[in-house]
Write a structure and sequence with these properties.
Helix content is 61%, strand content 12%. By secondary structure, the chain is mainly alpha-helical. It has one domain. A two-stranded antiparallel sheet has the order 1-2. The mean pLDDT is 79.
């Protein structure tokens, strides 16, 4: 009877550890996916800004300009975008953060 109790306790402990590991893996993957999407958004913004520079001989003054004139659409509900222009002939500083990272 004692051996059965230890066996059941051990099996429950193993099940809890495995479940915790699976949950950790799932949540870690979600965070990795969000970080990858943030990088992708940043790259897209930088590419559109460069496209603007090539066409207009100046980097755009704002993210709104890229949205209006270059078809950029960004998920601002889930991501915070910091767009800092320096000068017409210098690429802007772009940072993208997943809002779930707060």
């Amino acid at each position: 009877m004692i051996k059965e109790h230890k066996f059941i306790s051990t099996m429950i402990l193993i099940a809890v550890i495995v479940t915790a590991g699976v949950l950790f893996a799932v949540f870690s993957q979600d965070e990795d996916d969000m970080a990858a999407k943030a990088d992708s958004i940043k790259t897209t913004i930088e590419e559109r800004a460069l496209q603007c520079y090539v066409i207009e001989d100046a980097y755009p003054e704002s993210l709104a300009y890229l949205e209006k004139n270059y078809g950029l659409t960004v998920n601002k509900e889930d991501y915070k975008i910091v767009y800092r222009p320096y000068a017409e002939n210098m690429p802007p500083d772009v940072k993208v953060f997943y809002k779930g990272d707060r």
